[in-house]
Each structure stands twice: as C-alpha cells, then as structure tokens.
Write a structure and sequence with these properties.
two-stranded antiparallel sheet; 73 residues; 14% strand
Length: 73
C-alpha cells in the first residue's frame, strides 16, 4: 500500500511540478536521485519550514521551482 502511495505521489509531482522541465519525462528513480536525495538543513518553527540547500547542490534551481509549484496557496 505504501509503495502505491509513493508511486501516486511521484506521478503527481512529475505531472504538476515537473511539466516543462528537463525531468518531465524522467523515471521515478531519476527524480528521486536528483530532487529528493539532497543534503539540506531543515529549520522549522511554528509558521514555516525552511530548507537550507548546499550551494554545491547542482539542481538547486530546479528544486526551488518544483517546491514553488507544489506550494499550497
């Protein structure tokens, strides 16, 4: 059941947030390696969660674009 949920979540990310990017047709493992397996410091407080990405992270701009598209309004 968790595998099915993970697949649906990744498919939604690909369909909504990765549309028009170079990862729009990427396999799930590629999306996981390039977007989700990152070294970051996560700071959280009562109002928001902040990701402090390393300046050496090569896909930082793509990650920020995807996060902005997935942010609830």
């Amino acid at each position: 059941m968790l595998s099915s949920l993970a697949y649906v979540l990744m498919e939604a990310i690909r369909r909504q947030a990765l549309k028009g990017t170079k990862l729009a047709n990427a396999q799930m493992t590629t999306i996981r390696l390039k977007l989700l397996k990152i070294g970051a410091v996560i700071l959280r407080n009562t109002r928001r969660v902040c990701f402090l990405l390393s300046s050496a992270y090569p896909h930082q701009s793509l990650f920020l674009k995807v996060a902005a598209r997935l942010r609830p309004t």
